[in-house]
Design brief:
The protein is an all-alpha fold and 346 residues long. The chain folds into two domains: 144 residues, no CATH class; 122 residues. Helix content is 68%, strand content 1%. A two-stranded antiparallel sheet has the order 1-2. Strand 1 and strand 2 form a beta hairpin.
C-alpha cells in the first residue's frame, strides 16, 4: 500500500510513460507473427520509452519480453546491456539473444552479466569456450594486480626465478619419465597403434594364393603389405625352413590359424605332426610378436637402403608373346612347389 502511495507522488508525465511502455510491450506480445514493419516500429519506440520510464516499469517490461520469441535483435541487445538488476531475467531466459550477442555482452558488461549468461538452460560450445576464456583472463588480471601490489625486490625476483626454473625442469623431467614408463608398462597387448598391420583384403589374398600355391602372386601381395621391394618378399619366401615367412606374418599380426595354414601350404615339411601339433603351429607359437615386428622393420630398413632407387623394368621386346611373359609374376620355388618327375611307364 505504501508503494502505491509513492507511485502517486511521482510526476504525472512519468506515470504516463510507464503506462505507454507497458501498453507497447503488451501489444507487441499479442502479435503471434509480427511483420518486418511491426518489428521495426517496436524497435524505434521501445528505447525512448524505456529510457524515460521508471525502474519498476523497466523491470516489468524486461520480465515480460524475456518470455517472447519475437524480440528484435537490436532491442534484445539493448535490454541485455542494461544493469544486471534489470537485465538478469532477460539474460537467463530469452531465446532472442544469438551466440555472438551473448559473447559480446559477457565481454563488455562484466562478470555479473557473464554469471547470468551461465545460468541459461542451453549454451552452445562457442559461448562456453568464450566464457571459459573470460574466466582465465579475469584470473590473469587478478594475479597481475596482486603482483603489482606486492612487487618483490630485484634480488628476490632473481632468486625466485632460479627456483621456479629448477622446479619446472624437474617437473618436466618427471613428466617425461612417467610418460615413457606408461608407454612401456601400461601398453595393452593388442595395441598396435603405429605398427604395420595386414589389411583384411591383403590377409585374404595371402590365404588364397597360398591355397593355390601361386607363389609369384603371394610374393607381390606380401611386398605390398610390407611396403617394400619385390626382392625382399622373394628372399623371405626362399628361406625353405619357413622361419622368415613365419616371422614376417607374426610381425604383421596375422591371424594364427591363417598363418599356420599358409606355412603348411608353402612348406610341406611344416605340415608334419609333432607332439600332437604340426610343425607350423609349433613354429608359430615359439615366435614373439614384438621381436618379430622389430626384425621385420630391420629388414624393411635394409631393403629401403638397398633399393632406394626405382627398380628398372625389363626392356620392351618386339615379340608380344615375350612381353606378356615378362609381365607375369615370377615363380618362386618353395618346398611345396618342387615336384618329383613322373616315371615313364615301361
Amino acid at each position: 500500500m505504501t508503494n502505491e502511495f509513492r507511485d502517486l507522488e511521482r510526476p504525472q508525465a512519468m506515470r504516463k510513460k510507464d503506462v505507454v511502455l507497458m501498453a507497447t510491450v503488451t501489444s507487441f506480445e499479442s502479435l503471434p507473427h509480427p511483420s518486418r514493419s511491426e518489428l521495426r516500429q517496436f524497435a524505434e519506440l521501445f528505447a525512448p520509452l524505456f529510457s524515460a520510464s521508471s525502474e519498476k516499469a523497466r523491470r516489468d517490461a524486461v520480465a515480460a519480453l524475456s518470455q517472447s520469441r519475437n524480440v528484435p535483435p537490436a532491442v534484445a541487445f539493448f535490454i541485455a546491456s542494461q544493469p544486471i538488476a534489470i537485465a538478469a531475467p532477460f539474460l537467463t531466459a530469452s531465446t532472442c539473444l544469438s551466440d555472438d550477442a551473448l559473447i559480446a555482452i559477457a565481454r563488455t558488461q562484466g562478470e555479473a552479466h557473464a554469471r547470468a549468461i551461465v545460468l541459461r538452460e542451453a549454451l552452445s560450445p562457442t559461448v562456453i569456450d568464450a566464457l571459459v576464456g573470460l574466466r582465465h583472463d579475469h584470473v590473469k588480471r587478478h594475479d597481475a594486480a596482486i603482483a603489482g601490489i606486492d612487487a618483490p625486490r630485484p634480488e628476490q625476483q632473481e632468486r625466485h626465478g632460479a627456483e621456479d626454473a629448477g622446479r619446472l625442469g624437474r617437473e618436466e623431467e618427471l613428466r617425461r619419465r612417467l610418460k615413457a614408463l606408461a608407454g612401456h608398462i601400461d601398453r595393452p597387448a593388442g595395441d598396435r597403434l603405429g605398427l604395420r598391420n595386414l589389411s583384411p583384403i591383403q590377409e585374404a589374398l595371402l590365404v588364397r594364393f597360398a591355397r593355390n600355391r601361386e607363389t609369384g602372386l603371394f610374393a607381390t601381395v606380401l611386398a605390398d603389405a610390407l611396403s617394400a621391394s619385390h626382392w625382399l618378399s622373394e628372399r623371405i619366401m626362399l628361406d625353405i625352413s619357413g622361419q622368415q615367412l613365419a616371422t614376417t606374418l607374426k610381425g604383421l599380426a596375422m591371424d594364427g590359424e591363417d598363418a599356420v595354414f599358409i606355412l603348411q601350404r608353402l612348406y610341406d615339411h611344416l605340415g608334419a605332426g609333432e607332439d600332437g601339433a604340426t610343425r607350423a603351429a609349433a613354429l608359430w607359437n615359439s615366435l614373439d610378436e614384438s621381436e618379430c615386428g622389430k626384425r621385420v622393420e630391420a629388414w624393411r630398413r635394409a631393403d629401403r637402403y638397398t633399393y632406394a632407387e626405382p627398380q628398372p623394368r625389363p626392356a620392351a621386346s618386339g615379340d608380344r608373346e615375350a612381353e606378356g611373359r615378362e609381365t607375369l609374376p615370377r615363380l618362386i620355388r618353395t618346398t611345396a612347389s618342387v615336384r618329383r618327375p613322373l616315371r615313364r611307364a615301361r
